[in-house]
Design goal:
Chain lengths: 332, 274
Protein backbone atom coordinates (compact mmCIF):
# COMPACT_ATOMS: atom_id res chain seq x y z
CA UNK A 1 0.00 0.00 0.00
CA UNK A 2 2.65 2.43 1.01
CA UNK A 3 4.72 1.84 -2.10
CA UNK A 4 1.64 2.24 -4.29
CA UNK A 5 1.14 5.73 -2.90
CA UNK A 6 4.35 6.98 -4.40
CA UNK A 7 3.73 5.40 -7.80
CA UNK A 8 0.20 6.53 -8.49
CA UNK A 9 -0.26 10.26 -8.46
CA UNK A 10 -3.12 10.73 -6.04
CA UNK A 11 -5.37 13.73 -5.62
CA UNK A 12 -3.39 16.95 -5.27
CA UNK A 13 -2.16 17.57 -1.76
CA UNK A 14 -2.40 20.83 0.13
CA UNK A 15 1.15 21.76 -0.74
CA UNK A 16 0.50 21.50 -4.45
CA UNK A 17 -2.63 23.61 -4.30
CA UNK A 18 -0.66 26.17 -2.35
CA UNK A 19 2.07 26.26 -5.01
CA UNK A 20 -0.37 26.44 -7.88
CA UNK A 21 -2.31 29.16 -6.09
CA UNK A 22 0.83 31.20 -5.65
CA UNK A 23 1.67 30.82 -9.36
CA UNK A 24 -1.80 31.91 -10.43
CA UNK A 25 -1.72 34.82 -8.00
CA UNK A 26 1.63 35.85 -9.44
CA UNK A 27 0.24 35.97 -12.96
CA UNK A 28 -2.90 37.80 -11.90
CA UNK A 29 -0.77 40.36 -10.09
CA UNK A 30 1.48 40.75 -13.12
CA UNK A 31 -1.44 41.42 -15.41
CA UNK A 32 -2.84 43.92 -12.89
CA UNK A 33 0.53 45.66 -12.66
CA UNK A 34 0.82 45.83 -16.44
CA UNK A 35 -2.64 47.35 -16.77
CA UNK A 36 -1.96 49.76 -13.91
CA UNK A 37 1.30 50.92 -15.49
CA UNK A 38 -0.47 51.39 -18.78
CA UNK A 39 -3.19 53.42 -17.10
CA UNK A 40 -0.91 55.52 -14.91
CA UNK A 41 1.86 56.37 -17.38
CA UNK A 42 0.17 59.00 -19.53
CA UNK A 43 -1.42 60.57 -16.44
CA UNK A 44 1.76 60.77 -14.37
CA UNK A 45 4.11 61.88 -17.10
CA UNK A 46 5.06 65.52 -17.56
CA UNK A 47 3.01 67.49 -20.06
CA UNK A 48 -0.68 67.58 -20.86
CA UNK A 49 -2.06 64.04 -21.40
CA UNK A 50 -4.28 65.20 -24.23
CA UNK A 51 -1.39 66.90 -25.99
CA UNK A 52 0.66 63.73 -25.50
CA UNK A 53 -2.19 61.71 -26.95
CA UNK A 54 -2.59 63.79 -30.06
CA UNK A 55 1.06 64.32 -30.72
CA UNK A 56 2.86 67.37 -31.95
CA UNK A 57 2.03 67.17 -35.61
CA UNK A 58 -1.70 67.85 -35.25
CA UNK A 59 -2.94 71.42 -34.91
CA UNK A 60 -5.86 71.82 -32.50
CA UNK A 61 -7.74 74.76 -31.05
CA UNK A 62 -8.39 74.97 -27.30
CA UNK A 63 -12.06 74.17 -27.95
CA UNK A 64 -11.15 70.96 -29.80
CA UNK A 65 -8.77 70.13 -26.99
CA UNK A 66 -11.54 70.38 -24.41
CA UNK A 67 -13.81 68.34 -26.65
CA UNK A 68 -11.26 65.54 -26.92
CA UNK A 69 -10.62 65.74 -23.21
CA UNK A 70 -14.33 65.22 -22.53
CA UNK A 71 -14.57 62.49 -25.16
CA UNK A 72 -11.77 60.41 -23.61
CA UNK A 73 -13.20 61.21 -20.20
CA UNK A 74 -10.12 62.88 -18.74
CA UNK A 75 -12.36 65.37 -16.91
CA UNK A 76 -13.96 62.61 -14.86
CA UNK A 77 -12.58 61.37 -11.53
CA UNK A 78 -9.63 58.96 -11.75
CA UNK A 79 -11.55 55.95 -10.41
CA UNK A 80 -14.26 56.33 -13.06
CA UNK A 81 -11.54 56.66 -15.68
CA UNK A 82 -9.90 53.48 -14.45
CA UNK A 83 -13.13 51.48 -14.60
CA UNK A 84 -13.91 52.67 -18.12
CA UNK A 85 -10.32 51.95 -19.12
CA UNK A 86 -10.71 48.37 -17.86
CA UNK A 87 -13.97 48.05 -19.78
CA UNK A 88 -12.27 49.24 -22.96
CA UNK A 89 -9.48 46.73 -22.49
CA UNK A 90 -11.93 43.88 -22.05
CA UNK A 91 -13.54 44.87 -25.34
CA UNK A 92 -10.12 44.86 -27.00
CA UNK A 93 -10.10 48.63 -27.37
CA UNK A 94 -6.56 49.94 -26.90
CA UNK A 95 -7.23 53.54 -27.82
CA UNK A 96 -6.88 55.62 -30.96
CA UNK A 97 -3.68 56.56 -32.74
CA UNK A 98 -4.08 60.19 -33.77
CA UNK A 99 -0.92 59.90 -35.79
CA UNK A 100 -1.93 56.95 -37.97
CA UNK A 101 -5.65 57.77 -37.80
CA UNK A 102 -6.82 54.36 -36.69
CA UNK A 103 -7.59 52.23 -33.67
CA UNK A 104 -4.40 51.01 -31.99
CA UNK A 105 -5.63 47.42 -31.62
CA UNK A 106 -6.26 47.08 -35.35
CA UNK A 107 -2.90 48.58 -36.32
CA UNK A 108 -1.01 46.37 -33.88
CA UNK A 109 -2.92 43.30 -34.94
CA UNK A 110 -2.12 43.79 -38.62
CA UNK A 111 1.60 44.21 -37.90
CA UNK A 112 2.00 41.68 -35.12
CA UNK A 113 1.50 38.41 -37.00
CA UNK A 114 4.70 38.85 -39.01
CA UNK A 115 6.73 39.69 -35.95
CA UNK A 116 5.28 36.71 -34.09
CA UNK A 117 6.13 34.41 -36.98
CA UNK A 118 9.67 35.73 -37.14
CA UNK A 119 10.32 35.86 -33.39
CA UNK A 120 8.50 32.60 -32.68
CA UNK A 121 10.59 30.67 -35.21
CA UNK A 122 13.79 32.10 -33.78
CA UNK A 123 12.78 31.42 -30.16
CA UNK A 124 11.97 27.76 -30.89
CA UNK A 125 15.10 27.23 -33.02
CA UNK A 126 17.22 29.12 -30.50
CA UNK A 127 15.94 26.95 -27.66
CA UNK A 128 16.64 23.71 -29.56
CA UNK A 129 20.08 24.74 -30.78
CA UNK A 130 20.98 26.23 -27.41
CA UNK A 131 19.93 23.08 -25.54
CA UNK A 132 21.79 20.68 -27.82
CA UNK A 133 24.93 22.76 -28.27
CA UNK A 134 24.93 23.67 -24.58
CA UNK A 135 24.54 20.00 -23.60
CA UNK A 136 27.46 18.98 -25.80
CA UNK A 137 29.72 21.78 -24.58
CA UNK A 138 28.78 21.14 -20.94
CA UNK A 139 29.42 17.41 -21.31
CA UNK A 140 33.08 17.97 -22.20
CA UNK A 141 33.77 21.54 -21.07
CA UNK A 142 37.55 21.11 -21.28
CA UNK A 143 37.84 20.49 -25.02
CA UNK A 144 39.02 23.24 -27.30
CA UNK A 145 35.86 23.12 -29.41
CA UNK A 146 33.59 23.44 -26.41
CA UNK A 147 35.61 26.37 -25.09
CA UNK A 148 35.50 28.10 -28.48
CA UNK A 149 31.72 27.65 -28.68
CA UNK A 150 31.28 29.03 -25.17
CA UNK A 151 33.44 32.07 -25.92
CA UNK A 152 31.52 32.71 -29.12
CA UNK A 153 28.22 32.44 -27.25
CA UNK A 154 29.48 34.91 -24.64
CA UNK A 155 30.50 37.36 -27.35
CA UNK A 156 27.18 37.08 -29.19
CA UNK A 157 25.14 37.50 -26.01
CA UNK A 158 27.13 40.66 -25.21
CA UNK A 159 26.43 42.21 -28.62
CA UNK A 160 23.36 44.37 -29.11
CA UNK A 161 21.04 42.48 -31.52
CA UNK A 162 20.80 45.42 -33.89
CA UNK A 163 24.58 45.50 -34.33
CA UNK A 164 24.68 41.78 -35.05
CA UNK A 165 21.89 42.32 -37.57
CA UNK A 166 23.82 45.15 -39.23
CA UNK A 167 26.92 42.94 -39.52
CA UNK A 168 24.92 40.12 -41.11
CA UNK A 169 23.11 42.50 -43.44
CA UNK A 170 26.32 44.23 -44.51
CA UNK A 171 28.13 40.97 -45.13
CA UNK A 172 25.53 38.57 -46.56
CA UNK A 173 23.24 41.02 -48.32
CA UNK A 174 25.42 43.98 -49.31
CA UNK A 175 28.78 42.29 -49.89
CA UNK A 176 27.81 38.82 -51.05
CA UNK A 177 24.39 39.73 -52.41
CA UNK A 178 22.95 36.41 -51.28
CA UNK A 179 19.87 37.80 -49.60
CA UNK A 180 17.45 40.67 -50.14
CA UNK A 181 18.14 43.64 -47.90
CA UNK A 182 14.63 44.59 -46.85
CA UNK A 183 11.01 43.58 -46.48
CA UNK A 184 9.14 40.37 -45.69
CA UNK A 185 8.51 39.38 -49.33
CA UNK A 186 8.55 40.57 -52.95
CA UNK A 187 5.60 38.47 -53.98
CA UNK A 188 3.60 36.70 -51.34
CA UNK A 189 4.86 33.16 -51.85
CA UNK A 190 6.40 30.84 -49.29
CA UNK A 191 9.74 30.82 -51.12
CA UNK A 192 10.04 34.58 -51.17
CA UNK A 193 9.08 34.88 -47.51
CA UNK A 194 11.64 32.25 -46.49
CA UNK A 195 14.32 33.92 -48.59
CA UNK A 196 13.61 37.28 -46.95
CA UNK A 197 13.30 35.90 -43.44
CA UNK A 198 16.32 33.62 -43.43
CA UNK A 199 18.82 36.27 -42.45
CA UNK A 200 16.81 38.00 -39.68
CA UNK A 201 15.74 34.65 -38.23
CA UNK A 202 19.37 33.51 -38.29
CA UNK A 203 20.49 36.59 -36.36
CA UNK A 204 17.78 36.27 -33.72
CA UNK A 205 18.27 32.50 -33.44
CA UNK A 206 21.98 33.01 -32.90
CA UNK A 207 21.23 35.55 -30.21
CA UNK A 208 18.65 33.39 -28.40
CA UNK A 209 20.71 30.22 -28.79
CA UNK A 210 23.81 31.79 -27.28
CA UNK A 211 21.93 32.83 -24.14
CA UNK A 212 20.34 29.39 -23.78
CA UNK A 213 23.64 27.66 -24.48
CA UNK A 214 25.38 29.35 -21.56
CA UNK A 215 22.65 28.33 -19.11
CA UNK A 216 22.35 24.79 -20.51
CA UNK A 217 26.10 24.34 -20.30
CA UNK A 218 26.19 25.28 -16.63
CA UNK A 219 23.20 23.08 -15.94
CA UNK A 220 24.79 20.02 -17.59
CA UNK A 221 28.08 20.63 -15.77
CA UNK A 222 26.12 20.42 -12.51
CA UNK A 223 23.84 17.51 -13.44
CA UNK A 224 26.55 15.23 -14.77
CA UNK A 225 27.96 14.78 -11.27
CA UNK A 226 24.62 13.58 -9.90
CA UNK A 227 23.93 10.04 -8.76
CA UNK A 228 21.63 9.03 -11.58
CA UNK A 229 24.26 9.96 -14.16
CA UNK A 230 26.79 7.86 -12.30
CA UNK A 231 24.26 5.02 -12.18
CA UNK A 232 23.68 5.25 -15.91
CA UNK A 233 27.42 4.97 -16.47
CA UNK A 234 27.62 2.01 -14.08
CA UNK A 235 24.83 0.37 -16.05
CA UNK A 236 27.21 0.48 -19.01
CA UNK A 237 25.81 3.35 -21.09
CA UNK A 238 28.20 5.37 -23.22
CA UNK A 239 28.80 9.08 -22.79
CA UNK A 240 26.41 10.46 -25.38
CA UNK A 241 23.72 7.97 -24.36
CA UNK A 242 23.86 9.16 -20.76
CA UNK A 243 23.74 12.75 -21.94
CA UNK A 244 20.81 12.46 -24.33
CA UNK A 245 18.73 9.79 -22.55
CA UNK A 246 19.10 10.89 -18.97
CA UNK A 247 20.72 14.26 -18.43
CA UNK A 248 19.10 16.27 -21.20
CA UNK A 249 15.62 16.25 -19.74
CA UNK A 250 16.62 17.35 -16.26
CA UNK A 251 19.27 19.78 -17.36
CA UNK A 252 16.98 21.59 -19.78
CA UNK A 253 14.58 22.66 -17.02
CA UNK A 254 16.45 25.90 -16.21
CA UNK A 255 16.56 26.65 -19.94
CA UNK A 256 12.77 26.46 -20.15
CA UNK A 257 12.49 28.99 -17.35
CA UNK A 258 15.04 31.15 -19.13
CA UNK A 259 13.25 30.93 -22.48
CA UNK A 260 10.03 32.09 -20.83
CA UNK A 261 11.60 34.93 -18.89
CA UNK A 262 13.69 35.82 -21.92
CA UNK A 263 10.66 35.95 -24.19
CA UNK A 264 10.29 39.70 -23.70
CA UNK A 265 13.99 40.26 -24.21
CA UNK A 266 14.19 38.18 -27.40
CA UNK A 267 10.98 39.78 -28.65
CA UNK A 268 12.54 43.19 -28.07
CA UNK A 269 15.59 41.95 -29.96
CA UNK A 270 13.26 41.02 -32.81
CA UNK A 271 11.97 44.60 -32.84
CA UNK A 272 15.51 45.95 -33.29
CA UNK A 273 16.35 43.42 -35.98
CA UNK A 274 13.17 44.37 -37.83
CA UNK A 275 14.30 47.98 -37.83
CA UNK A 276 17.67 47.07 -39.34
CA UNK A 277 16.15 44.78 -41.99
CA UNK A 278 13.29 47.22 -42.70
CA UNK A 279 10.76 44.48 -42.02
CA UNK A 280 7.30 45.90 -41.85
CA UNK A 281 6.34 44.49 -38.45
CA UNK A 282 5.93 45.67 -34.90
CA UNK A 283 9.53 46.86 -34.51
CA UNK A 284 9.33 49.35 -37.33
CA UNK A 285 5.89 50.35 -36.06
CA UNK A 286 7.31 51.12 -32.61
CA UNK A 287 10.31 52.90 -34.14
CA UNK A 288 8.02 55.16 -36.17
CA UNK A 289 5.83 55.68 -33.11
CA UNK A 290 8.86 56.85 -31.12
CA UNK A 291 9.91 59.26 -33.84
CA UNK A 292 6.35 60.60 -34.11
CA UNK A 293 5.80 60.55 -30.31
CA UNK A 294 2.69 58.44 -30.89
CA UNK A 295 2.05 57.53 -27.25
CA UNK A 296 -1.22 55.55 -27.57
CA UNK A 297 0.49 53.22 -30.03
CA UNK A 298 3.55 52.81 -27.80
CA UNK A 299 1.33 52.02 -24.83
CA UNK A 300 -0.70 49.53 -26.81
CA UNK A 301 2.47 47.85 -28.00
CA UNK A 302 3.78 47.63 -24.45
CA UNK A 303 0.50 46.13 -23.25
CA UNK A 304 0.44 43.52 -26.00
CA UNK A 305 4.10 42.53 -25.56
CA UNK A 306 3.73 42.34 -21.78
CA UNK A 307 0.66 40.10 -22.07
CA UNK A 308 2.54 37.90 -24.57
CA UNK A 309 5.34 37.53 -22.03
CA UNK A 310 2.90 36.53 -19.29
CA UNK A 311 1.37 33.96 -21.67
CA UNK A 312 4.82 32.59 -22.49
CA UNK A 313 5.54 32.17 -18.79
CA UNK A 314 2.27 30.32 -18.21
CA UNK A 315 3.10 27.98 -21.10
CA UNK A 316 6.58 27.42 -19.64
CA UNK A 317 5.05 26.51 -16.28
CA UNK A 318 2.79 23.93 -17.94
CA UNK A 319 5.72 22.54 -19.94
CA UNK A 320 7.79 22.38 -16.79
CA UNK A 321 5.13 20.25 -15.15
CA UNK A 322 4.99 17.95 -18.17
CA UNK A 323 8.77 17.45 -18.19
CA UNK A 324 9.38 17.19 -14.47
CA UNK A 325 7.12 14.76 -12.61
CA UNK A 326 8.40 16.11 -9.29
CA UNK A 327 6.65 19.40 -10.02
CA UNK A 328 3.54 17.66 -11.40
CA UNK A 329 3.01 15.53 -8.34
CA UNK A 330 3.70 18.35 -5.95
CA UNK A 331 6.78 16.68 -4.53
CA UNK A 332 10.14 18.42 -4.18
CA UNK B 1 43.71 22.78 -14.29
CA UNK B 2 43.85 24.00 -17.87
CA UNK B 3 40.37 25.42 -17.47
CA UNK B 4 41.46 27.36 -14.39
CA UNK B 5 44.44 28.79 -16.25
CA UNK B 6 42.26 29.73 -19.17
CA UNK B 7 39.84 31.36 -16.79
CA UNK B 8 42.60 33.36 -15.17
CA UNK B 9 44.03 34.52 -18.48
CA UNK B 10 40.62 35.57 -19.83
CA UNK B 11 40.01 37.34 -16.58
CA UNK B 12 43.29 39.21 -16.92
CA UNK B 13 42.44 40.08 -20.52
CA UNK B 14 39.01 41.33 -19.47
CA UNK B 15 40.54 43.44 -16.69
CA UNK B 16 43.02 44.99 -19.12
CA UNK B 17 40.26 45.72 -21.63
CA UNK B 18 38.08 47.32 -19.00
CA UNK B 19 41.07 49.39 -17.82
CA UNK B 20 41.51 50.73 -21.35
CA UNK B 21 37.83 51.72 -21.51
CA UNK B 22 38.04 53.30 -18.06
CA UNK B 23 41.01 55.39 -19.21
CA UNK B 24 39.04 56.46 -22.27
CA UNK B 25 36.17 57.48 -20.01
CA UNK B 26 38.33 59.25 -17.42
CA UNK B 27 40.64 61.28 -19.66
CA UNK B 28 38.98 61.63 -23.06
CA UNK B 29 40.48 65.07 -23.69
CA UNK B 30 44.03 63.71 -23.31
CA UNK B 31 43.57 60.77 -25.68
CA UNK B 32 41.16 62.08 -28.29
CA UNK B 33 42.80 63.88 -31.22
CA UNK B 34 39.91 66.36 -31.52
CA UNK B 35 37.45 67.97 -29.12
CA UNK B 36 33.80 66.87 -29.11
CA UNK B 37 32.61 69.99 -30.92
CA UNK B 38 35.40 70.40 -33.48
CA UNK B 39 34.08 70.05 -37.02
CA UNK B 40 35.71 69.51 -40.38
CA UNK B 41 34.62 68.07 -43.77
CA UNK B 42 31.73 65.59 -43.37
CA UNK B 43 31.72 61.98 -44.67
CA UNK B 44 35.51 61.65 -44.88
CA UNK B 45 37.07 58.22 -45.32
CA UNK B 46 39.81 57.17 -42.90
CA UNK B 47 43.02 59.08 -43.56
CA UNK B 48 46.06 60.53 -41.81
CA UNK B 49 44.12 63.50 -40.39
CA UNK B 50 41.10 61.50 -39.24
CA UNK B 51 42.14 57.94 -38.50
CA UNK B 52 38.54 56.69 -38.57
CA UNK B 53 37.11 59.35 -40.85
CA UNK B 54 34.36 61.83 -40.03
CA UNK B 55 30.59 61.69 -39.52
CA UNK B 56 27.82 63.42 -41.43
CA UNK B 57 28.35 66.43 -39.13
CA UNK B 58 32.10 66.45 -39.76
CA UNK B 59 32.98 65.18 -36.29
CA UNK B 60 36.06 63.00 -35.93
CA UNK B 61 34.86 59.44 -35.40
CA UNK B 62 37.82 58.33 -33.27
CA UNK B 63 37.28 61.24 -30.88
CA UNK B 64 33.56 60.51 -30.67
CA UNK B 65 34.41 56.90 -29.91
CA UNK B 66 36.68 57.92 -27.02
CA UNK B 67 34.17 60.37 -25.59
CA UNK B 68 31.44 57.73 -25.94
CA UNK B 69 33.10 55.41 -23.40
CA UNK B 70 32.17 57.81 -20.64
CA UNK B 71 28.40 57.65 -21.06
CA UNK B 72 28.29 53.89 -21.55
CA UNK B 73 30.31 53.14 -18.41
CA UNK B 74 28.59 55.83 -16.36
CA UNK B 75 25.10 54.58 -17.20
CA UNK B 76 26.16 50.95 -16.74
CA UNK B 77 27.84 51.25 -13.36
CA UNK B 78 25.53 53.88 -11.86
CA UNK B 79 22.33 52.02 -12.70
CA UNK B 80 23.84 48.71 -11.57
CA UNK B 81 24.79 50.38 -8.29
CA UNK B 82 21.22 51.55 -7.84
CA UNK B 83 19.85 48.12 -8.79
CA UNK B 84 22.20 46.46 -6.31
CA UNK B 85 21.08 48.83 -3.57
CA UNK B 86 17.40 48.09 -4.16
CA UNK B 87 18.08 44.38 -4.61
CA UNK B 88 20.04 44.23 -1.36
CA UNK B 89 17.34 46.07 0.56
CA UNK B 90 14.50 43.93 -0.78
CA UNK B 91 16.40 40.64 -0.55
CA UNK B 92 17.72 41.26 2.96
CA UNK B 93 14.34 42.35 4.29
CA UNK B 94 12.53 39.41 2.73
CA UNK B 95 15.13 36.86 3.76
CA UNK B 96 15.68 38.16 7.27
CA UNK B 97 12.11 38.79 8.41
CA UNK B 98 10.46 36.02 6.34
CA UNK B 99 6.75 35.43 6.84
CA UNK B 100 4.16 37.67 5.24
CA UNK B 101 6.66 40.41 4.41
CA UNK B 102 8.71 37.85 2.49
CA UNK B 103 5.66 36.68 0.53
CA UNK B 104 4.69 40.22 -0.40
CA UNK B 105 8.18 41.32 -1.40
CA UNK B 106 8.83 38.18 -3.44
CA UNK B 107 5.47 38.46 -5.21
CA UNK B 108 6.44 42.04 -6.05
CA UNK B 109 9.83 40.84 -7.29
CA UNK B 110 8.22 38.19 -9.48
CA UNK B 111 5.92 40.78 -11.00
CA UNK B 112 8.85 43.08 -11.78
CA UNK B 113 10.71 40.09 -13.22
CA UNK B 114 7.93 39.25 -15.63
CA UNK B 115 7.26 42.74 -17.00
CA UNK B 116 9.33 43.10 -20.19
CA UNK B 117 12.03 45.67 -19.50
CA UNK B 118 12.96 47.05 -22.91
CA UNK B 119 9.40 47.85 -24.05
CA UNK B 120 8.68 49.53 -20.70
CA UNK B 121 11.91 51.50 -20.84
CA UNK B 122 11.05 52.52 -24.39
CA UNK B 123 7.73 54.10 -23.39
CA UNK B 124 9.20 55.65 -20.24
CA UNK B 125 12.06 57.12 -22.25
CA UNK B 126 9.66 58.31 -24.94
CA UNK B 127 7.56 60.13 -22.35
CA UNK B 128 10.46 61.55 -20.35
CA UNK B 129 12.85 62.55 -23.17
CA UNK B 130 15.72 61.50 -21.00
CA UNK B 131 19.03 62.82 -19.94
CA UNK B 132 21.67 60.58 -18.46
CA UNK B 133 20.17 60.92 -14.97
CA UNK B 134 16.73 59.68 -15.91
CA UNK B 135 18.22 56.86 -17.97
CA UNK B 136 20.18 55.69 -14.91
CA UNK B 137 17.11 55.95 -12.66
CA UNK B 138 14.86 54.00 -15.03
CA UNK B 139 17.42 51.27 -15.74
CA UNK B 140 18.34 50.99 -12.06
CA UNK B 141 14.73 50.83 -10.92
CA UNK B 142 13.95 48.00 -13.35
CA UNK B 143 16.88 45.63 -13.02
CA UNK B 144 17.17 44.73 -9.34
CA UNK B 145 14.97 41.64 -9.25
CA UNK B 146 17.56 38.95 -9.90
CA UNK B 147 19.85 40.51 -7.27
CA UNK B 148 16.98 40.54 -4.77
CA UNK B 149 16.32 36.84 -5.36
CA UNK B 150 19.95 35.82 -4.90
CA UNK B 151 20.35 38.00 -1.80
CA UNK B 152 17.16 36.57 -0.28
CA UNK B 153 18.13 32.94 -0.77
CA UNK B 154 21.60 33.59 0.63
CA UNK B 155 20.17 35.56 3.57
CA UNK B 156 17.88 32.65 4.39
CA UNK B 157 21.00 30.52 4.80
CA UNK B 158 23.09 33.03 6.72
CA UNK B 159 20.36 33.96 9.19
CA UNK B 160 20.39 30.43 10.59
CA UNK B 161 24.11 30.50 11.39
CA UNK B 162 25.44 30.64 14.92
CA UNK B 163 26.84 34.14 14.81
CA UNK B 164 23.57 35.65 13.61
CA UNK B 165 21.67 33.73 16.28
CA UNK B 166 24.00 34.96 19.01
CA UNK B 167 23.84 38.53 17.72
CA UNK B 168 20.05 38.30 17.97
CA UNK B 169 20.26 36.86 21.46
CA UNK B 170 22.44 39.76 22.50
CA UNK B 171 19.68 42.05 21.35
CA UNK B 172 21.27 43.82 18.41
CA UNK B 173 18.66 45.50 16.22
CA UNK B 174 17.91 43.80 12.85
CA UNK B 175 19.44 46.62 10.82
CA UNK B 176 22.72 46.29 12.69
CA UNK B 177 22.77 42.51 12.26
CA UNK B 178 22.09 42.81 8.54
CA UNK B 179 24.82 45.39 8.06
CA UNK B 180 27.57 43.85 10.12
CA UNK B 181 26.82 40.11 10.04
CA UNK B 182 24.84 39.24 6.95
CA UNK B 183 26.05 41.65 4.26
CA UNK B 184 29.74 40.70 4.57
CA UNK B 185 28.73 37.09 4.02
CA UNK B 186 26.72 37.69 0.88
CA UNK B 187 29.04 40.16 -0.87
CA UNK B 188 30.57 37.34 -2.89
CA UNK B 189 27.24 36.49 -4.53
CA UNK B 190 26.29 40.15 -5.02
CA UNK B 191 29.51 41.19 -6.74
CA UNK B 192 29.12 38.98 -9.83
CA UNK B 193 25.47 39.99 -10.07
CA UNK B 194 26.56 43.62 -9.92
CA UNK B 195 28.93 43.14 -12.86
CA UNK B 196 26.27 41.31 -14.88
CA UNK B 197 23.74 44.05 -14.10
CA UNK B 198 26.29 46.59 -15.34
CA UNK B 199 26.72 44.64 -18.58
CA UNK B 200 22.95 44.42 -19.06
CA UNK B 201 22.49 48.14 -18.38
CA UNK B 202 25.19 49.01 -20.92
CA UNK B 203 23.40 46.92 -23.57
CA UNK B 204 20.08 48.58 -22.68
CA UNK B 205 21.66 52.02 -22.96
CA UNK B 206 23.11 51.13 -26.35
CA UNK B 207 19.71 49.84 -27.48
CA UNK B 208 17.87 52.93 -26.31
CA UNK B 209 20.35 55.27 -27.97
CA UNK B 210 19.93 53.29 -31.16
CA UNK B 211 16.23 54.18 -31.04
CA UNK B 212 17.17 57.82 -30.49
CA UNK B 213 16.03 57.70 -26.86
CA UNK B 214 19.42 58.33 -25.28
CA UNK B 215 20.80 61.59 -24.01
CA UNK B 216 20.78 63.91 -27.04
CA UNK B 217 23.60 66.05 -25.63
CA UNK B 218 26.13 63.18 -25.44
CA UNK B 219 27.05 60.99 -28.37
CA UNK B 220 27.15 57.46 -26.95
CA UNK B 221 28.29 54.39 -28.90
CA UNK B 222 24.72 53.31 -29.50
CA UNK B 223 23.90 56.77 -30.81
CA UNK B 224 26.92 56.61 -33.14
CA UNK B 225 25.74 53.33 -34.64
CA UNK B 226 22.27 54.82 -34.88
CA UNK B 227 23.43 57.92 -36.74
CA UNK B 228 25.55 55.81 -39.07
CA UNK B 229 22.43 53.74 -39.72
CA UNK B 230 19.99 56.60 -40.24
CA UNK B 231 22.31 59.18 -41.84
CA UNK B 232 23.51 57.00 -44.69
CA UNK B 233 26.75 55.59 -43.34
CA UNK B 234 25.42 52.04 -43.30
CA UNK B 235 23.91 52.02 -46.78
CA UNK B 236 27.11 53.50 -48.23
CA UNK B 237 29.11 50.78 -46.48
CA UNK B 238 31.14 53.28 -44.48
CA UNK B 239 32.22 50.50 -42.12
CA UNK B 240 34.65 52.77 -40.29
CA UNK B 241 31.66 54.69 -38.99
CA UNK B 242 29.43 51.95 -37.51
CA UNK B 243 31.89 49.09 -36.93
CA UNK B 244 34.15 50.71 -34.25
CA UNK B 245 31.35 51.86 -31.91
CA UNK B 246 29.57 48.51 -32.26
CA UNK B 247 32.74 46.61 -31.50
CA UNK B 248 33.41 48.90 -28.55
CA UNK B 249 29.95 48.12 -27.10
CA UNK B 250 30.54 44.39 -27.49
CA UNK B 251 34.06 44.44 -26.04
CA UNK B 252 33.13 46.69 -23.14
CA UNK B 253 30.08 44.59 -22.21
CA UNK B 254 32.07 41.41 -22.72
CA UNK B 255 34.88 42.55 -20.43
CA UNK B 256 32.47 43.52 -17.66
CA UNK B 257 30.46 40.29 -18.03
CA UNK B 258 33.61 38.13 -18.14
CA UNK B 259 34.82 39.66 -14.89
CA UNK B 260 31.41 38.94 -13.40
CA UNK B 261 31.48 35.31 -14.53
CA UNK B 262 35.03 34.93 -13.23
CA UNK B 263 33.94 36.19 -9.80
CA UNK B 264 31.08 33.73 -9.86
CA UNK B 265 33.30 30.79 -10.82
CA UNK B 266 36.06 31.84 -8.43
CA UNK B 267 33.68 31.78 -5.50
CA UNK B 268 32.46 28.32 -6.47
CA UNK B 269 28.89 29.47 -6.26
CA UNK B 270 26.96 28.48 -9.31
CA UNK B 271 23.74 30.43 -9.37
CA UNK B 272 21.02 28.77 -11.34
CA UNK B 273 18.27 30.60 -13.10
CA UNK B 274 15.42 29.39 -10.92
Amino acid sequence: MLSCRSWIPGPPGGEEIHRAGRKVLRYVLSVCAIIAINFALPRLMPGDPVMNLIGEDAMVTPAQLAEIRAKIGLDRPVTVQFVSCLGDLLCGDLGYSFHLHGPVAGILWSRMSWTLLFAGTAIVLGALIGIIAGALSGWKPETRRSRAVTCAAMAVSCTPPYFLAMLFLAFFAFRLGLFPAKGYYDVLTAGSVVHHLLLPVAVLTLFAASRNLLVMRGSVVQEKNSHYALYARAKGLFGRQILFRHLLRNASLPVITLVALDFGFIFSGALFIEIVFSLNGMGTLIYDAILARDYPLLQGAFLVIALLVVTANIIADLLYGALDPRVREGGV
Amino acid sequence: MRAMDALKSTNRGAMALLAVFLCMAAFPSLIAPYGPSERSMPYQAPGPEHILGTTNMGNDILSELIYGARISLLVGFASALMATGIGLAVGLTAGYFRGALDEVLMAFTDVVLIIPKIPLIIILAAFLRPGVGILILVLGALSWESIARVVRSKTLQVRETGFVMSARCMGFPPLRIMASDIVPNIVHVVLPKFMLATAAAMISEASLSFLGLGDPSMESWGAMVSSAFTKGGFIREMWWWYLPPGICITLCVLSVAAIGFAFEAGEGTTVRVE
